[in-house]
User: Which sequence fits this backbone?
C-alpha cells in the first residue's frame, strides 16, 4: 500500500508518526509525500488549543478532498471527540491514544507485539514532515493536573518506555545516519517514575552506550529536575538547551494553574542550570490571558520574563478547552485583552532572543544543516540549528543536508544568525 502520514502539534506526535513509518516500511509498504497518492492516510491530531483542533479536522478534510483512499485518525483531538472524527469524510477508523503505539499492527491485522523487534533504520519521512533530527518518544501521559491542560486528559496517566526500547530506537536512528536525537514525551521529566528510575538514568545510558553525535531534550517541566541533573551536561554531546515551560511569572496565577512551581523556585532552577552549563539556552512557554489574570499579574509575568532573560519563548493565547478546570473558572479575559498581552509578550521574547543571539557574533559554533533553501550566485543557502537551538544560515558550494559543520558567526539575522562554514 501507499501510505501518507501526517500530524499536527507537538514533537511527540512527530515521533509517533516516525515510529509508524518504520513499522509500515517493515511490512513492505511505501511512504508517500502527498495524500492524493495514498491508499491509506493516517492523521495524528492535536487538541492543545481550539485552533489545533480545527487544523486537525481541516487536515482530514483536505486528505479526503485530495482523493486519499481511506483515512485513519488518531491523536488527542480524536481521542476526545471520537464520534466527530468518525463522521468526517473517508474516515475508516478512529484509534484512541491508548492504542496508538499499536496502530500499525491493528490496521494491518497483526498481533500487537508484532513490532517489538529490532526496528528498521530510520529514514526521514517524505514531504513536509521530513526531519534530519530523530524525535524519539520515551514517555507518554501525565500524572499532573494543570488546570488549563487538555493533554493530560487526552493522553491519560504517565507511563515510560523501557530503556531497551529507547536504545533500540536510538540505534535505528544512528543506522539511518541521524546526527541528532531529540527525546520527547508529554511529561519527559517524569520518565522512569513508574519503575523507580529518573530521566538522568536514561540520558546517561544513551550517552554511554550510543555514539549519537548530538542528544537534545525536549520540553521539561520545571519541577522534575533533581540537583545532579545538570551534571549530565559534562558530556558535550548533550546539547546546551533547556525548554522549561513557565506558563506565568505570577505566583497567584501559577497557583490557579496548579503548577508545581513558583517564580522563586523557577529562578533558582535557572541559576543552577546557568552555573552548570555555560551559555545554556533557556527557552520557555507562557500563556497570556489565563482566566482571572489581572493587569497586575500580567505585569508580574512581563517583569519576571525580562528578569530571567530567556533565549526565546512561545506565547500561547489562553484557549479554553472543554473538560479542563480552567474552562469552568470565572472572569475569563476578553479576546482583545488576550491578544494585546500575547503581542506584548511576543515583542519581549523577540528582544530577549536578539540579546541572547548577539553574544555569539564572532564565535564559531557547530551547526546541523536541516534545510537547503535556494541556490544563488553564492551557492546553496543552508539553514540549520546550533546546539543551543539558534537557527543559522550560511552558503555552501553543495547541499550539506544532515551534516554538522563548524560555522564562524558573522552577523545577526531576523530570527537567527548568519555565518561562514569554516570546517566540518
Ligand atoms: S505537566 Fe501540566 S501542562 Fe504538562 S502535560 Fe502535565 S498537566 Fe499538561
Assistant:
Amino acid at each position: 500500500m501507499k501510505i501518507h502520514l501526517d500530524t499536527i502539534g507537538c514533537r511527540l506526535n512527530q515521533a509517533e508518526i516516525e515510529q509508524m513509518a518504520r513499522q509500515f516500511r517493515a511490512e513492505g509498504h511505501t511512504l508517500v509525500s502527498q495524500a492524493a497518492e495514498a491508499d491509506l492516510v493516517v492523521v495524528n491530531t492535536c487538541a492543545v488549543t481550539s485552533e489545533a483542533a480545527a487544523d486537525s479536522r481541516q487536515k482530514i478534510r483536505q486528505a479526503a478532498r485530495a482523493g486519499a483512499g481511506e483515512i485513519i485518525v488518531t491523536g488527542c483531538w480524536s481521542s476526545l471527540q471520537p464520534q466527530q472524527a468518525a463522521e468526517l469524510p473517508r474516515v475508516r477508523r478512529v484509534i484512541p491514544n491508548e492504542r496508538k503505539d499499536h496502530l500499525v499492527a491493528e490496521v494491518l491485522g497483526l498481533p500487537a507485539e508484532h513490532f517489538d523487534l529490532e526496528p528498521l533504520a530510520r529514514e526521514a519521512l517524505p514531504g513536509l514532515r521530513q526531519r534530519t533530527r530523530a524525535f524519539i518518544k520515551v514517555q507518554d501521559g501525565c500524572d499532573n493536573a494543570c488546570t488549563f491542560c487538555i493533554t493530560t486528559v487526552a493522553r491519560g496517566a504517565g507511563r515510560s518506555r523501557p530503556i531497551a526500547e529507547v536504545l533500540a530506537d536510538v540505534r535505528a536512528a544512528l543506522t539511518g545516519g541521524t546526527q541528532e536525537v531529540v527525546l520527547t514525551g508529554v511529561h519527559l521529566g517524569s520518565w522512569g517514575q513508574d519503575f523507580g528510575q529518573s530521566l538522568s538514568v536514561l540520558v546517561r545510558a544513551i550517552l554511554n552506550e550510543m555514539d549519537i553525535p548530538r542528544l537534545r531534550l525536549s520540553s521539561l517541566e520545571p519541577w522534575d529536575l533533581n540537583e545532579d541533573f545538570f551534571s549530565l551536561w559534562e558530556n558535550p554531546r548533550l546539547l546546551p538547551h533547556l525548554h522549561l515551560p513557565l506558563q506565568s511569572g505570577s505566583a497567584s496565577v501559577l497557583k490557579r494553574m496548579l503548577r508545581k512551581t513558583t517564580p522563586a523556585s523557577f529562578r533558582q532552577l535557572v541559576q543552577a542550570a546557568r552555573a552548570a552549563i555555560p551559555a545554556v539556552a533557556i527557552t520557555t512557554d507562557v500563556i497570556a490571558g489565563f482566566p482571572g489574570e489581572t493587569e497586575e499579574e500580567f505585569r508580574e509575568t512581563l517583569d519576571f520574563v525580562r528578569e530571567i532573560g530567556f533565549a526565546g519563548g512561545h506565547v500561547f493565547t489562553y484557549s479554553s478547552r472543554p473538560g479542563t478546570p480552567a474552562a469552568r473558572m470565572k472572569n475569563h479575559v476578553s479576546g482583545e485583552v488576550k491578544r494585546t498581552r500575547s503581542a506584548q509578550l511576543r515583542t519581549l521574547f523577540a528582544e530577549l532572543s536578539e540579546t541572547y543571539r548577539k553574544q555569539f557574533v564572532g564565535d564559531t559554533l557547530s551547526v546541523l544543516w536541516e534545510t537547503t533553501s535556494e541556490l544563488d550566485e553564492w551557492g546553496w543557502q543552508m539553514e540549520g540549528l546550533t546546539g543551543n537551538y539558534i537557527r543559522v544560515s550560511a552558503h555552501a558550494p553543495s547541499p550539506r543536508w544532515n551534516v554538522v559543520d563548524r560555522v564562524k558567526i558573522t552577523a545577526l539575522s531576523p530570527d537567527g544568525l548568519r555565518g561562514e562554514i569554516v570546517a566540518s
The mean pLDDT is 93.
